[in-house]
Amino acid sequence: MPVITFFNTLGRSMEEFKPLVPGKVGFYGCGPTVYNYAHIGNLRTYVFEDILVRSLRRFGLDVTHVMNITDVGHLSGDDDSGEDKMLRSAKERGQSVLQIASYYTDAFFADTERLGIARPDVVCKATEHVQDMIRLIRRIEAGGYTYSAGGNLYFDVSKFPRYGELANLRLEELKAGARIEVDENKKNPQDFVLWFTKSKFENQALIWDSPWGRGYPGWHVECSAMSMKYLGESFDIHAGGVDHIPVHHTNEIAQSEAATGKPWVRYWLHAEFLVMDKGKMSKSKGNFITLQNLLDGGFEALDYRYFCLGGHYRSQLSFSDDAMAQARASRKAMLEKFLDLRTHAGTAEVPNRSRLHAGVLARLERFDKLLAEDLAVPRALAELWGLLKDPSLPPADVVAAALDMDTVLGIGLAGARREEKSLSDEERSKIQALVDRRTEAKKAKNWAEADALRQELKDLGIVLEDGPRGTVWKQLKA
Ligand code: AMP
Ligand code: ZN
Predict the structure, then answer these.
(1) Which ranges carry the tRNA synthetases class I catalytic domain (predicted)?
(2) Is residue 226 within 8 Å of residue 126, measured between CB atoms?
């Protein structure tokens, strides 16, 4: 296993990754708020998380991947301002909140499946874990970190000295900065709601009894409660998009560590945004592109995955029609190159790693090293290209190594099929003439010539099947 390093947002530096329990990794990634389709920006973050999980597993680590589904409590402003996202969507579509949640959860997993994203080991819905949240809030309250105001229970950030460490926030500066306070109940603008009772929304659809009155949990507390339920009070990695650093993840840390008194998450990994020339893609504003839009435009889902692999997760990635078309063309070229090599490798068993050609093995080792260096995926992809294009390497070994690399990259090499090319009459008679010559050679027991002709046909993409009624030929589907 190579040395694994990650850029930890907490502390802003590269750090060697050492799991809390050797050989095991607890990983939590914030899941979608299911009031609308995921946009391709959200999906970029999930592709990154998938590569992370697959890389860790490749290095022999036993990963438990937990993802929440936010189906309650997320307001349009992460700082408790605005409307309830689920409720607004339900009203607009004339359905119940749970119907909306179920529809968009299914749509989310249909998208992630098409993108080859492995399903997390645990998928947990906020509405099914409200008792866990209530228990956690009671612990936070018992530690003296909360206050009630206007019917809601707030987390008091001034009681948690390390508040804002993840985002390098300085509370004093924030306080001094001109900022219009949206919630007059808050003592500090950064205070956040743990439990809502006096909702500003009439007819809140989903409410629960709690020690603080009938109401519903704040958004941030769900991730703390569910991650700890499935991964323990301290775990290895938490990931999400960069937008979550200053509020959501900052608040998750404060309330989790306030409740347990222990360090919570050890490595924080954040994916930069997918950006468009037309500005920020936003689910709540409705100006976004979905995976289905791309499929309707003639792309394959894995073309989008390939597009994502072209940028390092910590850099912004610019989406445009041209860039997407380029990704499709590159992926197609890669599949074709791979299929050619597979044809040349024949149907022989591909060698296992221990018996690979030294040049191929060296490339595989470099590939692993690149992944281990904070997921240098664009360079790992270039390594795969280098492998496929190196004429000095034996095709069967290249095929084996490429398939191995693709277990992380997920471009679809294993399932690649060449469409049967339509043959002209001229090509057909040329093939038939070669087949007949081989039959003659066999009759004359001229095995060397028969074999040479079989090889010549194979190079043309034709395979032969000798049967009781003579020899039939067909195109080789790689
Ligand atoms: P949400 O469903 O809004 O909670 O977002 C789901 C995930 O997508 C979160 O991890 C966000 O940080 C991430 N995200 C949101 N917008 C973008 C974007 N434009 N590019 C990449 N990731 C994003
Ligand atoms: Zn979260």
Answers:
(1) 17-328
(2) yes
